[in-house]
Design goal:
By secondary structure, this protein is of the alpha/beta class. It is built from 18 helices and 13 strands.
Length: 378
Amino acid sequence: MNSPTFAIVAGEASGDTLGADLMCALKRLFPNARFEGIGGPKMIAEGFLSFYQMDRLSVMGFVEPLKRLPELLSIRRDIINRCKQSKPAAFIGIDSPGFNLGIEKALHNSGIKTVHYVSPSVWAWHQGRIKGIKRYVDLMLTLLPFEEAFYQQHAVPVAFVGHPLAGQIPRTPDSNGARQQLGLDIDRPLLCIMPGSRGGEVALMGELFLMVARRLLESNPQLQFVIPAANGDRHRQLTEILAEHPQLPVTLIEQQSLLAMEAADAVLLASGTTALEAMLLKKPMVVSYKLGKWTYKLVRPFIKTPFASIPNLLAAEMVVPELIQDEATVDSLSAAVTNALDVNARHLVEQRFEELYKQINLPSGDTAAAAIKKLLCL
């Protein structure tokens, strides 16, 4: 098979980045390969034929997907029908499990090889989903090594390909340079505050984190703060919250989260991919998260992982403090951030983060492409 066709569906910007990297690697193995499905501008620049605009799949929360459900189901049926007709060498679903796993199920049952790139958090909660994945995913590509171990335990074909962020984030951060770009004082300690990217997260965490900032400022008047808002809506939301704290020396910016973390001495963040980014930037951090009382009671029985943050999951121990739900108080968070800002503590954490960086620093695209070639026996 000298000119295979690969069908790929990526539903958001991070998937577009992974898809473009994977396409480059597959083209090195199969110079005449064709690529089609749904992708973004980076994939299209590599010669990808996208049947729909990628942002049609980028839905969040509970209400918006329900409103868009007829359209999403129509797109999914069309992709399935196109693949059944064209018979690609493989279908590759990149992240977006709610959309892609259904396609993979239908295509696997039609005899088409299926690959899923970026493991859903099945290892963390509702592990019963692994039974379905085992039936209709021929190859799972994971970004993190503990995910690979989980799939191996359940006899699911898997390849750990490393996390692309490891190669994209500067290994030696330039804190002073980042501060100068953001107009921040290079001589004063700086805490980066990241209360989440969604409205509900900011509503729950924003006020709490600012109360922590007030407490920290009482004991360290030289402390300054930066908050990178994920988008324009979060910027407006945080502006309203900050209006209740006019005495805080906070610089609120839009996006530029990596630059804000690079500038900081430590990061106070809501759990998520941000923790991995902070780890790669060698920044001490305090991880926290809260859900609504009844939501937490509902989901807690399904959570099977001992840790919430990626650094701790990678290390298999508590490397960074996690203060979740009832433990997320002003007193406990203030104490933990004070420790994170301590110079001696920073050096110890930086050494450990370097070890964790080495675990996930692989050429992701090439590793993934080699695993796909092996799956197809080409």
